[in-house]
Amino acid sequence: VLKRTEVIDNTLNPDFVRKYILDYFFEEKQNLRFDDFLGQVYCTLGEIVGSPASRLEKPLGGIPGKKCGTIILSAEELGNCRDYTTMQFCANKLDKKDFFGKSDPFMVFYRSNEDGTFTICHKTEVMKNTLNPVWQPFSIPVRALCNGDYDRTIKVEVYDWDRDGSHDFIGEFTTSYKELCRGQSQLNVYEVSGDKDRNPSQSTSLHYMNPYQMNAYAMALKAVGEIIQDYDSDKMFPALGFGAKLPPDGRVSHEFPLNGNIENPYCNGMQGILEAYHQSLKTVQLYGPTNFAPVVNHVARYAAAVQDGSQYFVLLIITDGVISDMAQTKEAIVNAAKLPMSIIIVGVGQAEFDAMVELDGDDVRISSRGKLAERDIVQFVPFRDYMDRTGNHVLSMARLAKDVLAEIPDQLISYMKSRGIKPNTDPPPAYSPALHSLLP
User: Fold this and answer.
1) How far is CA 234 from the centre of its chain?
2) Which of 120, 142, 251, 279 is 20 to 30 A removed from 11 (C-alpha atoms)?
3) Are the beta carbons of 245 and 287 closer than 8 angstroms?
4) How far apart are CA 241 and CA 253, in angstroms?
5) Percent of the chain residues past pLDDT 90, beyond the cut
6) Residue 261: CB atoms within 10 Å
7) Tens digits of per-residue pLDDT, 42-70?
C-alpha cells in the first residue's frame, strides 16, 4: 500500500480530505490502483492528468455482478511554494441545530480549482455542544490551501456533526489566503507505420506476423503508443500507412488509412491500431518508394487549422529508415515547425539511419531552401538499441518510451511561448470536435 485515505463514517458519497503528492513523469507509464472492500479501479497517472480539467471519473469494479459506484480522481500540478501556515479559528452565535442541545460544529475547508470547482483540503475537529466554538490551531501547506496563489478563493463551510453522518449545514463563507494573512475576513496523436519489406509472410520481413510474439513494428507502436494515448481524451487515433499498392487497382499510395476506411480512419486505442495494422498487411502490397512528406503534410493540415493552443499534434512514424523524398520531407518539416505539432520517428531493423539522424536535427537544425526550421520538432530513436541480442524482445519498454517522449514537453512549451499562448484557466471541453470535422 503506497497511500491510504482517512475513514469517513456512515456515508455512500465520501469526500476524502487527505491528498497525496506524486512525482509525475510525462514520458513514463505510472500505473495506479485504487481499492478497498467496496471495489477497485486501475488507471495510470497520465490518464488522470490527461483527462479534461485533469479530473477522471471511473466505475469501481472487482465484485462480480454488483455495481460498486464510481470514483472521481483529480490532479493538479503543484506550485513551488513550500510554505506552511498555522491558523486558528473561532465562531460566535452559530445556529442551534440539535433539538436537545446546541450544536456540535466543525469546519470544512475547500480550495478552488482552475475549472471553478472546489476540492476539500482540511477538516477541523468537532467541538461538542457549543454555539461559540474555539477550534484548535492547525498547520497546513499553503499549496494545499491555494497552490501558492494567495488570491485564489478558499471556501469554508460549517456543519453541525451528527452521529449518523447526516451533518447539518450551518453556513459558509469565502476568503483567500491573502485576506487570512491580514487577520481579516485563493495531444492529438497520429500513428503511422511503413517500410518496404515486400512480403510480410516471410520470416525475414520486419512485418512478419509471428503467432507467438509481436514484430518490431508492433512492439515499437505498443511501447510508445500506450504512453502517449493517455493524453488524448477519446482515445480515437487516425492511423495511416505509406508505400503500398492498394486494392482493387494496385494504385501506389503514400497516405492511406490502415483500417481501409477513407471516411473514418480512426482506430480505438492502441489495440485498435494494432488490429488495423495486422489486417492491412493482408489486404495491401507493400511497395516503394518510401515517401515521408505526404504524411507530414497530412498532419500539418490539421495542425494549421488549430493554432490557438487548444490542441497539439504528435505524429509517430515507424520505419525501416529508407527514405526516397528527403528534400520534400525536409521542406515539410520546416513548414510544420511553425505549427503545434511534433514528430517522433522510430527506426526498426538493422539499416543505417543517417537520414533519420539528419531529420532529427539535434546537432544541426534542419533547413530547406535556405530556411531554418523555427523549432526542433523531430525526435529519432533506433529501435534496435532497446532490443536483446536475439532481436525478439525489448529489454525495457519503459526506457524506450521514456527516450522517445522525453522531448515532447519542451517542444510543446516552445510552440506555446513562441506564439505568446498562456495556459488556459478555463476547463477544456470534454470532447473537441475540431479534428473530427476536418476529415480529408
Assistant:
1) 11
2) 142
3) yes
4) 8
5) 23
6) 11
7) 888 888 888 887 888 998 887 777 788 88
Q: Which three cell numbers stand for residue 78?
A: 503543484
Tell me which residue has cell 457549543: 130
The answer to whether residue 12 sits within a structural domain is no
The range of the structural domain enclosing residue 42 comes to: 31-74
Q: Classify residue 124 by its DSSP letter.
A: P
Residue 154 · residue 118 · CB < 8 Å:
no
Task: Name the 3-class secondary structure at 382.
Answer: strand
Helix (H, G, I), strand (E, B) or coil at 261: coil
Query: What would the pLDDT profile of 165-196 be if each residue is shown by its tens digit?
Result: 788 888 888 888 888 877 544 344 444 444 44
Q: Residue 245 domain-assigned?
A: yes
Residues 214 and 102 in one domain: no
Q: What pTM was estimated for this model as a whole? A: 0.61
**Whether the Cβ atoms of residue 229 and residue 270 lie closer than 8 Å to each other:** yes
Q: Using the 8-state DSSP alphabet, how is residue 329 labeled?
A: H
Distance between CA atoms of residues 107 and 163, nearest Å: 16
Domain tally, the chain = 3
Residue 234 within any structural domain of the chain: yes
| CATH classification of the domain holding 228 | 3.40.50.410
In the chain, the amino acid numbered 412 is: L
Q: How far apart are CA 26 and CA 423, in angstroms?
A: 17
Closest CA to 440 of 243, 244, 256: 256
Distance, in Å, from the CA atom of 215 to the CA atom of 232, rounded to the nearest integer, reads 25
Clarify whether residues 158 and 291 are in a common domain.
no
The DSSP H or E segment spanning 244 is strand 244-246
